[in-house]
Amino acid sequence: MAPIVMESIKSGVASSNQAPIAQLGNDMSTVLGQSVTLSCEYCFDPEGDELSYNWQLLGQPDTSTSVLESTTSPIATLNPDMIGEYLVAVIISDGETEVTSNTQIIDVRNNQKPISKIFAPLTASLGERVILDGSHSFDPEGAELNYEWKIIDQPNHDEIYEDSSALAYFTPMSIGDYIVSLRTNDGTQYSDPETTAISVKENQAPVIVIQGDLNRTICIRGECRPKRSGKVYDPEGEAITFLWTLHKPDNSTVTLQDDSAKILQFTPDIAGIYIATLTITDPANNLSSESITVEVTDLSDVLTGTVKGRIVDTTLSGVENALLSINGKEYSSDQEGFFNITLDIEEGNAIKILTADSRLVKAQHVTAVIAQQDFIIDLGESFVPVKQEVDTYLWTCGDYSGPENINLRFNMIDTFPATNKFTTHFDETFSFAIDSNKSIALPSTASYELFVDDEVTITAPGPKVTIYYAPILGAMNIVTICNK
């Protein structure tokens, strides 16, 4: 951003009047055909005097005939008619002193075509509905997308349903490979087609359903027999073979009497962690496995209590089904982000709560040591930044002569609102080709320190940037680099 220029015109009469402050915001980018709203982000008078405005168009492409509208209002409008850079500034006055702001650059570019993305399974079973997810497609300018799904190659004549929606589906009625295509349109142009292949097979892996918690069930040494009921089945009705394995603490002498039984039952003999794993196999050698983790401790050491709270995003809306790891065991919030968990813990230990959800930034909360029964850990509404796809552009200045590929590092230094219950961490580096863009996942709303390779420097937006949470319109970030 250009330096602030403070030009004052004062009368010859001595006055204690303080000059008003005029500073426009960061340089902006837009696409041809969109109006640009101009406002003085930091315009004010120290004495609170009413200000007058005079917006100026200082530069524009050679053949442009655009003019500013509402030039004497706090908010002006520019309707660019050519691709290129437009330079604007504003002169403000408190009635005694005039001040000219810094120059703001508006970079006008052509509309870019949208990017289509497909999330779908690589394999499917005959007669099973296959969900096609195109909701991660995006438009670089944030325009709303229209969807066009097609099956371009298949062994049958199956049809896609909801073929104009972000989520579509089809039911394969033949074994073989299905090639699915998606194109999106932003109202101006189509994306390049995105394709994916789905292999349809007849046989499915056998299924294990174990009732009760699978992990970290505390038993009392000498007073329990860890046992889980459930069922297993093969979708095609074939016979299933069983194989149990047991991982046990050092010095334990527990053995399995029958590792091929349908029901496993054993009695722990010492405190520690026991992990029982069941593997089932069908005649086609398809495998499925599931594990049960049992934590065994002494009766006098076990304390029981509650951990509760709510995980929210920047808008203080609950994060649906947020995954948390509490002392190594995974839990999930409900659809409104609430969790209320009964927890057993050895006396004198702390409770460590971690985010275990790819949608959330890495965050943790560690309690003090627990020393009483019926403890309650209430985290209340706890903000944790949600990762969102940010369309990030890396531009170069006119005389750039540096490397073709640049490493751009984002180090999160602050969040909005503050994460007062969890400590968070995000420090990642992304590789960019110069004068290009790509979508990267950044926690939001958050402020970042920006770093680039030693031989170049960032000229815009500067050493720091804030990424705002925009789940509907999408977020965009532009970084400009020059030679040092």
Automatic annotation (TrEMBL):
InterPro entries: Ig-like_fold, KIAA0319-like, PKD_dom_sf. One of its GO terms (cellular component) is cytoplasmic vesicle. It comes from the Bacteria. This is Putative ChiA. It comes from Pseudoalteromonas tunicata D2. The gene is chiA.
